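Input chain follows. Return structure tokens only.
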Amino acid sequence: MVAEFNGAATFVEENYGESELAKRFGVRRYPAIFVNDVLVATPKDFGFYGSGEGENNGRYAPIRSAASHAKFRADLSKAIALFVAGRKTDAKAMAAPADTGEVAALPPISVTDLDGKMLTSADLAGRVVLVDFWATWCPPCRGTMAWLGRVKERYGDKVAVVTFALESDEADVRRLAGEMKLPFRWAMRTPDILRAFGDVSAVPTLLVFDANGRNAAAFYGSTEKIHAEADAKLATLIK
């Protein structure tokens, strides 16, 4: 499609969790399609919904159908053509809503952890809280948890680390928690947690809340760059 514009358009592919443009728009799921700084399509547009959000009713769903492909291609081509013609305002009118789903503050928590102890919001009050969503089948998640272990060792009781496993068997979660021996509160993502935090469709997802419970940052993926960015953020939150 880009080739149709005879050099006036360029295709750029960015890795999940590493797109500065996606971060600026608060896009927390992929695929996301931008034309310059206009968000043209989100996962929901393709019918990629998370648990409890409905299914297969996005603008371009079902994406496997020829008609959906044609509609997406036509809309994307129109957005590119508007930019090429210098009609940025018209292109912005086609923008899709970001709909990040991120919570603005640490929601009320009441869940039994893997040790059989109740974990509530009161246990986390007054500390910087890191909430990690992960899965046993996700190798990069282990890198994030190892990094979180170093964070906990560095800051001690100034931070609280809570991990919620999703799409994983509890027996596998218990085994991995026992192997890693990290000082976290390990728990399974329950229906109540799903309702509280909303859909988390990518792992690892790390949400950072300041000592007053406000959402301070969100990180997706597990790379040295992301961990360095999270380290820098934590340094500003923990005095």
